[in-house]
Amino acid sequence: MTMARVLRFIFIPGYMLFSSLLLGQEPAIPESQPATATTTSATPAEIDPKVESILDRLEQRGEQIINIETDILFRKTDSILESTERYAGVLRYLKDEPNPRFFICFDRFIQDGRESRQRRWHIFDGRWYIEANERLKTITKREIARPDERCDAFKVGEGPFPLPFGQKKADILRVFTVEIVPTEDDKDKNLDHLKCTPRPNTEMDRKYAAVHFYVDRDLNLPVRMQTVDKEEHSEIEVIFPVTSIRINTGLPASKLNLPMNELRDYEITTEPLPDSAG
After folding, report:
1. What is the DSSP secondary-structure string of 99-118?
2. Could you identify which of 57, 181, 187, 278 might form a hypothetical disulfide with 220, taking C-beta atoms 3.0 to 4.6 angstroms apart as the criterion?
3. 32-66: string of b/e by CB count within 10 Å (b at 16+)?
4. Is residue 194 domain-resident?
5. pLDDT tens-digit map of 169-215
6. Boundaries of domain holding 128
7. Is the pTM of this model over 0.85?
């Protein structure tokens, strides 16, 4: 799984990812889908009123968020290799101009009972997507938007970094059919469990099975996501622990930057967008 698909799984409401996030593949903007895939939408008669209410609350809550900081736990289980990878770290988001920003730093990696503490960063500063790897001592910067250019980098089904908040109900229903699944575990009693099935003949349908996400009824935010990668035959889960989520706390923009004073000896690679003049 490339880093781009990892980030898509983490950021879409209930469509998150992470595995070989350290391979450094470019998070390319997805190609346009056929008209039948991008214009499909559910009619009001097709939408469960309870689903519609939850999606309305998600959209309204997203409009209120200026910044958010949370712990993030990622687990990938490979059903063929019978191995499990776990990552733990922090995610930060800031609504900014001309584009929102995000910051992820994983500082723990566990596989087969062995733990590594070397850090790995994934950052979008509104213009550049930046990866840094403490073990390899490398920084890679890829330009996603030109200076002062607004882009749909966070829109579900379109941009390379869809987010689990701030999405429009209409955009979610354009990409998925959504249904409520009864919760059976006591630990989920304050969560609404939504099963999101990618619409046929879309990019998500080709890559992913149904995506499950769990919405906290108090926060009106997804706090857990699960899916299966069809190509890699892997199960993926991402958790935002409720007690770690901090919203609109005045998060300073500096907390979304790489700690360059600690990374002075890193090798830096820069990949700008092609010259638009041509």
Report:
1. S-EEEEEEEEEEETTEEE--
2. 57
3. ebeeebeebebeeeebeeebeebbebbbebbeebe
4. yes
5. 888 888 889 999 998 777 788 999 999 998 998 877 888 888 898 99
6. 3-266
7. no
